[in-house]
Amino acid sequence: MLDMEGFIFWLAVFVLCLWCCQWYTHLVAIIYGKWRLHHKRSSTECPPVPLPGMSIIKPLTGVDPNLYANLEPFFNLQYPAQYELLFCDSDPAIIVVKSLLLKNPNVRTELFMGAKKIGMNPKINNMITVYGAASHDLILISDSGLRMKQDTLSDMVQSLTASCHVGLVRQIPFVCNRNGFAGILEKVGLIDEAYSVFLGTQHANMYLNADLYGINCVTVMSCLFRKKKSAVGVSPSVLSLLGRIHETTPSQTSRREWWAKLRQSIVPLTLLEPHSESLLCGLLASWAVHVVTSVSPLVTFGAHLLAWLILDYVIFIVMQCPFSKCEFLLAWLVRESTSLFLFLRAYSSSELTWRNKRYLLDWGGIGREVPSTRKPQISEV
């Protein structure tokens, strides 16, 4: 039977093993990302075959200053086959869509009004009717906050149709270049996409590893699939060109908490997710190294943070051309120092707010809307 000292020693060894796994995923993401995202397909990899028609579903969620700039590229895609744009109802955004329709009359576009409530997510409720009305077998779901390069759709469809074993193509999103410190913060991680991992560094790290090892993981922000299940099985989703998102820092901070709460209610093991953050991981590793080797925890922690920063910066370069090193350092420090606080705040309550409505999350990710306690206003006539 192990005594307490032996138990602590082997616990430290276990922590060190987890620590080594973190470094391994960093290195894998860098090497695989460099090859996968900067690799030009040859003619043998992508034979010139006719591409099928496409239905692009764009759920609208109100108007923001970037909505017009985000939607316009989808009217100018360089796609050799016919594609249609299907917009889901959002009254304030209709004006923007109609202005783009007048400017681009040659693109087949439909605007669907009304939603069918099947859950707490208004985006999904809006898309149900649109999905059934899509005229093509290939469906691309793309958030209204995304931009896309002209050749990205062709690249995604080629990835899907290259093999009958491919059933899904996803994108890794990144943030458009923006001026000012708020834009810098968003690019290196204060923005969180559907699965609460950080876009420029940790998010990319996870998705690159998942793609390499064939782990199916969907980002509902942008994904391409067949409407009818014509594939023989579903293979690991294939990375395509990167998507772009353009939103504001405050809303994305709230979204990050939102997804942390949701993941916790669906997969309880995500309670261990903060261990993948540099600060907590470094603190545990410093303790473990001290137990095993008697090296000063301060030395280990400092070396850990420096190495983590360097590898994050390398991943960021692989994902997108970066800004200056000083700007990255400042934004990285802000993101790392706030990440644990956001996790704690997300885990402290099962209540969340979404689109000005409050919900309580039950196990399994099922949400129950909390009735508003606000009394109706009475106006005198």
Automatic annotation (TrEMBL):
It comes from Capitella teleta. The keyword Nucleotide-binding does not apply. The keyword rRNA-binding does not apply. SUPFAM superfamilies: Nucleotide-diphospho-sugar transferases. Its EC number is 2.4.1.80. Belongs to the glycosyltransferase 2 family. This is ceramide glucosyltransferase. It is a multi-pass membrane protein. One of its GO terms (cellular component) is membrane. Pathway: Sphingolipid metabolism; Lipid metabolism; sphingolipid metabolism. Its main location: membrane.
